[in-house]
């Protein structure tokens, strides 16, 4: 990107174009965070999960159903405030309020907040901004188009997005049976980009063009970039939102814990996303008709329903998340359907339907 070598930049744009149209995700190396720096951030996440007091677990407990956010501490009994089946997943999520107020952060991690803030600022302002510049180039628009018009980056290190420390403890026999090995259903993230760090315990799977789930391979220090639904819509379907899920690891890793660090980057909440019509790529090639969020938003627009704002779109999906251990909702005739021989999860939010492989 900064080489000044025109051919290198053209090649990079072509490679990116292929990856985001066909695979829907990117694997980045040499993005400016050393393996040592990354290990330090993982150590801090481990420290938080080992040392958060019971008082802080209670005081900072999340309110997803009422807030539409994961802000705060997620207990290991599902994705609702009320305790359901034990799923072994704990998280701490920083949104703008947690960045701004040290009373909203576990006391044990306070001495290290400056390092966590600096890491997130770098990811947002250097890594994410450059990825968006590359995507703007693919749309043949000025480098800052997506940063200036779509990305939320005001009001804290992650704008309206958030940063997560997650710990996946091994499944209990009950949770594994109820969830059929799923820790997160197949889904797309709703924002711009999701920055995840490759970890040796393999659980993340991506839905390929061959309609199969595949584990993302481990590469020390690499960054996995998922594309969110906002970018699918802005690009008129030329970028595919990454369909992914979290599944139990291969047999030799079922008994180990897995730490995960994620920056979820978000679009500006008040916007209602539509394709960037000024893109020469969209003008020349038209809209891409691919079965995903973009097609569903188009259908909703055609029926005259106002499409949701980005804030409405993300908050309802969080508020109405279904646990993988919910054996009543996760069944054909309830949330699941069979479509062309594939088991799919079918939900509807604000009049827009979402159909994704389980
Ligand atoms: Fe995700």
Automatic annotation (TrEMBL):
Coiled-coil features, chain-numbered ranges: none
Transmembrane segments: none
Annotated ranges, domain Fe2OG dioxygenase: 158-267
Pfam families for this protein: 2OG-FeII_Oxy
Cell membrane among keywords: no
GO MF term (any one): oxidoreductase activity
Record key words, sorted: Iron, Metal-binding, Oxidoreductase
InterPro entries: IPNS-like_FE2OG_OXY (IPR044861), IPNS-like_sf (IPR027443), Oxoglu/Fe-dep_dioxygenase_dom (IPR005123)
Family in the record: Belongs to the iron/ascorbate-dependent oxidoreductase family.
Protein's UniProt name: Fe2OG dioxygenase domain-containing protein
């Amino acid at each position: 990107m900064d080489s000044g070598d025109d051919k290198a930049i053209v090649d990079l744009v072509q490679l990116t174009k292929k990856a985001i149209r066909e695979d829907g995700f990117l694997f980045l190396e040499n993005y400016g965070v050393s393996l040592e720096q990354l290990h330090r951030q993982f150590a801090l996440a481990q420290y938080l999960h080992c040392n958060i007091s019971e008082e802080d677990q209670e005081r900072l407990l999340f309110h997803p159903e009422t807030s539409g956010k994961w802000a705060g501490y997620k207990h290991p009994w599902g994705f609702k405030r009320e305790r359901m089946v034990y799923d072994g997943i704990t998280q701490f999520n920083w949104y703008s309020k947690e960045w701004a107020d040290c009373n909203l952060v576990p006391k044990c991690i306070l001495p290290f907040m400056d390092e966590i803030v600096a890491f997130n600022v770098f990811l947002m302002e250097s890594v994410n901004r450059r990825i968006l510049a590359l995507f703007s180039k693919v749309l043949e628009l000025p480098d800052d188009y997506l940063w200036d018009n779509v990305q939320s980056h005001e009001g804290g290190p992650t704008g309206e997005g958030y940063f997560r420390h997650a710990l996946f403890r091994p499944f209990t026999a009950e949770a594994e049976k109820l969830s059929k090995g799923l820790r997160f259903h197949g889904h797309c993230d709703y924002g711009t980009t999701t920055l995840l760090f490759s970890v040796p315990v393999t659980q993340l799977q991506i839905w390929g063009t061959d309609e199969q789930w595949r584990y993302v391979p481990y590469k020390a220090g690499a960054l996995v970039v998922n594309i969110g639904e906002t970018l699918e819509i802005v690009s008129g379907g030329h970028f595919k939102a990454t369909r992914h899920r979290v599944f139990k690891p291969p047999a030799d890793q079922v008994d180990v814990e897995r730490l995960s660090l994620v920056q979820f980057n978000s679009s500006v909440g008040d916007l209602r996303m539509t394709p960037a019509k000024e893109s020469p790529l969209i003008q020349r090639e038209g809209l891409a008709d691919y079965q995903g969020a973009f097609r569903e938003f188009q259908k909703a627009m055609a029926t005259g329903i106002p499409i949701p704002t980005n804030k409405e779109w993300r908050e309802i999906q969080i508020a109405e998340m279904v646990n993988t251990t919910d054996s009543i909702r996760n069944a054909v005739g309830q949330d699941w359907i069979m479509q062309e021989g594939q088991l799919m999860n079918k939900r509807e939010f604000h009049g827009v339907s979402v159909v994704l492989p389980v």
